[in-house]
């Protein structure tokens, strides 16, 4: 471990030494960074989606329409603020605040630059990070979980059916996708040996974790889209069946707070993905090899912003290309795909780390891990074969057994048959020749 990595591992003591005015400046910078990024992201999203759909997009307010988000914010603040009669007024007013405030809190532990390479602000040396914790990533998970309460409470307190359904969907979606997100983080903890964000970035000096842990990165990408309720996983506010979801009964500044919380959460999860998997503030590979000063001074802030913007473009690209999934597909992806895959991947990562700690060579590790994967696949294949045989045997027994008589009109109205039941044969209408023959026989009689 070289000097920079060792320094970053011991530099948690650097945080908390700044004077109060410098802490205030850094906090204001974090807030301003989120706000400016949100304003830019809204315009960028509308421009990119318009370009993908062969439209123009915002082009009136400011140069190239860049002030459109600011104009929309002013418009929302000046609109009439309504409160529905059947709403729980206290919770109804507090819900947007509960959704917005935790969205800003997570940025406090995100490193914008190396802790060992301090910058100078008004003559004071300080790291490019507001603070850091030994459990910084768990702090991010906690703030993200609290923000969901705002959406759930907004749906419940509105006193309306559609917002309540949107809030319940958001709660189920959060539970489903935060499990897979936490397991994906666990793989990073195993490799870095720390939950501190600055330490995790310091451990990626030689190789980013997106290369060492590609499955964890893919799982996190899926969970961060579900966590922020973005298309194609925007079930809590799907206008096709819920009018507007949890924010249907909101207007004016309270509605703007929900929109602000959504975009701030997008920036936050993109910053977390950059920190844990994409090297954080580190310069990309071609630049870092021939430029020694790429990771010093204020330059790390530029690399960090570029990576975050690329992930935000990924959000926009998904919204402009993929249709909204059904709710059962959303739950199936979370519980039957992401969670099992993340658990199996975590066991493989833990096995590899344990073998490396025992000084096994690379070939032995590949042999052991590959053998375990092959054995698991064989067991699953055998299970599927015997399960299919059992299902076929039961189906054959049901078909061979006596069929229960089924009367679709027994209850006074038609009902469909249950499994194992059959509808009675429909009486065939006699043909014209048969009707003429019957009439002729009646005449002869």
Automatic annotation (TrEMBL):
<comment type="function">
    <text>NDH-1 shuttles electrons from NADH, via FMN and iron-sulfur (Fe-S) centers, to quinones in the respiratory chain. The immediate electron acceptor for the enzyme in this species is believed to be ubiquinone. Couples the redox reaction to proton translocation (for every two electrons transferred, four hydrogen ions are translocated across the cytoplasmic membrane), and thus conserves the redox energy in a proton gradient. This subunit may bind ubiquinone.</text>
</comment>
<keyword id="KW-0520">NAD</keyword>
<feature type="compositionally biased region" description="Pro residues">
    <location>
        <begin position="414"/>
        <end position="428"/>
    </location>
</feature>
<dbReference type="Pfam" id="PF00146">
    <property type="entry name" value="NADHdh"/>
</dbReference>
<keyword id="KW-0830">Ubiquinone</keyword>
<feature type="compositionally biased region" description="Basic and acidic residues">
    <location>
        <begin position="431"/>
        <end position="445"/>
    </location>
</feature>
<feature type="transmembrane region" description="Helical">
    <location>
        <begin position="208"/>
        <end position="226"/>
    </location>
</feature>
<keyword id="KW-1003">Cell membrane</keyword>
<feature type="transmembrane region" description="Helical">
    <location>
        <begin position="301"/>
        <end position="321"/>
    </location>
</feature>
<dbReference type="InterPro" id="IPR001694">
    <property type="entry name" value="NADH_UbQ_OxRdtase_su1/FPO"/>
</dbReference>
<feature type="region of interest" description="Disordered">
    <location>
        <begin position="394"/>
        <end position="445"/>
    </location>
</feature>
<protein>
    <recommendedName>
        <fullName>NADH-quinone oxidoreductase subunit H</fullName>
        <ecNumber>7.1.1.-</ecNumber>
    </recommendedName>
</protein>
<dbReference type="GO" id="GO:0016655">
    <property type="term" value="F:oxidoreductase activity, acting on NAD(P)H, quinone or similar compound as acceptor"/>
</dbReference>
<feature type="transmembrane region" description="Helical">
    <location>
        <begin position="20"/>
        <end position="44"/>
    </location>
</feature>
<feature type="transmembrane region" description="Helical">
    <location>
        <begin position="90"/>
        <end position="113"/>
    </location>
</feature>
<keyword id="KW-0812">Transmembrane</keyword>
<dbReference type="GO" id="GO:0003954">
    <property type="term" value="F:NADH dehydrogenase activity"/>
</dbReference>
<dbReference type="GO" id="GO:0048038">
    <property type="term" value="F:quinone binding"/>
</dbReference>
<comment type="subunit">
    <text>NDH-1 is composed of 14 different subunits. Subunits NuoA, H, J, K, L, M, N constitute the membrane sector of the complex.</text>
</comment>
<feature type="transmembrane region" description="Helical">
    <location>
        <begin position="133"/>
        <end position="156"/>
    </location>
</feature>
<feature type="transmembrane region" description="Helical">
    <location>
        <begin position="177"/>
        <end position="196"/>
    </location>
</feature>
<feature type="transmembrane region" description="Helical">
    <location>
        <begin position="365"/>
        <end position="386"/>
    </location>
</feature>
<feature type="transmembrane region" description="Helical">
    <location>
        <begin position="255"/>
        <end position="281"/>
    </location>
</feature>
<keyword id="KW-0874">Quinone</keyword>
<feature type="transmembrane region" description="Helical">
    <location>
        <begin position="333"/>
        <end position="353"/>
    </location>
</feature>
<dbReference type="GO" id="GO:0009060">
    <property type="term" value="P:aerobic respiration"/>
</dbReference>
<comment type="similarity">
    <text>Belongs to the complex I subunit 1 family.</text>
</comment>
<keyword id="KW-0472">Membrane</keyword>
<dbReference type="InterPro" id="IPR018086">
    <property type="entry name" value="NADH_UbQ_OxRdtase_su1_CS"/>
</dbReference>
<dbReference type="GO" id="GO:0005886">
    <property type="term" value="C:plasma membrane"/>
</dbReference>
<keyword id="KW-1133">Transmembrane helix</keyword>
<keyword id="KW-1278">Translocase</keyword>
């Amino acid at each position: 471990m070289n000097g920079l990595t060792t320094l970053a591992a011991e530099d948690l003591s650097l945080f908390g030494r700044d004077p109060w005015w410098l802490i205030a400046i850094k906090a204001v910078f974090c807030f301003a960074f989120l706000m400016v990024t949100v304003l830019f992201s809204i315009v960028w999203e509308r421009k990119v989606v318009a370009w993908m759909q062969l439209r123009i997009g915002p082009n009136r307010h400011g140069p190239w329409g860049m002030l459109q988000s600011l104009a929309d914010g002013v418009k929302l603040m000046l609109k009439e603020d309504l409160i529905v009669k059947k709403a729980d007024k206290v919770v109804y007013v507090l819900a947007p605040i509960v959704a917005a405030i935790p969205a800003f809190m997570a940025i406090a532990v995100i490193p914008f630059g190396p802790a060992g390479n301090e910058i100078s602000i008004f003559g004071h040396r300080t790291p490019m990070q507001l603070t850091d914790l030994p459990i910084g990533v768990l702090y991010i998970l906690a703030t993200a979980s609290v923000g969901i309460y705002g959406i759930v409470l907004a749906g419940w307190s509105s006193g309306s059916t559609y917002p309540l359904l949107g809030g319940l969907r958001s709660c189920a979606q959060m539970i489903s996708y935060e499990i897979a997100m936490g397991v994906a983080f666990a793989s990073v903890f195993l490799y870095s040996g720390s939950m501190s964000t600055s330490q995790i970035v310091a451990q990626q000096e030689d190789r980013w974790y997106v290369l060492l842990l590609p499955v964890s990165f893919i799982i996190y990408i899926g969970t961060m889209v579900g966590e922020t309720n973005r298309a194609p996983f925007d079930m809590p506010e799907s206008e096709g069946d819920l009018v507007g979801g949890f924010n249907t009964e909101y207007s004016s500044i309270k509605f703007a707070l929900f929109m602000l919380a959504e975009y701030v959460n997008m920036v936050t999860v993109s910053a977390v993905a950059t920190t844990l998997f994409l090297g954080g503030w580190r310069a990309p590979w071609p630049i870092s090899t021939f430029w020694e000063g790429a990771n010093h001074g204020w330059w790390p802030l530029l690399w960090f912003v570029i990576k975050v913007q690329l992930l935000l473009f990924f959000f926009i690209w998904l919204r402009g290309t993929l249709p909204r999934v059904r709710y059962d597909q959303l739950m199936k992806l979370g519980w039957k795909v992401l969670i099992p895959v993340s658990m199996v991947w975590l066991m493989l990562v833990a096995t590899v780390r344990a073998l490396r700690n025992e000084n096994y060579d690379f070939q032995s590790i590949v042999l052991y891990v590959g053998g375990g994967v092959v054995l698991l696949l064989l067991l699953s294949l055998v299970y599927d074969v015997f399960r299919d045989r059992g299902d076929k045997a039961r189906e054959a027994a049901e078909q061979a057994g006596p069929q229960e008589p089924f009367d679709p009109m027994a209850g006074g109205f038609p009902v469909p048959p249950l499994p194992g039941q059959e509808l009675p044969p429909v009486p065939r209408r006699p043909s014209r020749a048969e009707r003429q023959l019957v009439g002729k026989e009646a005449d002869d009689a």
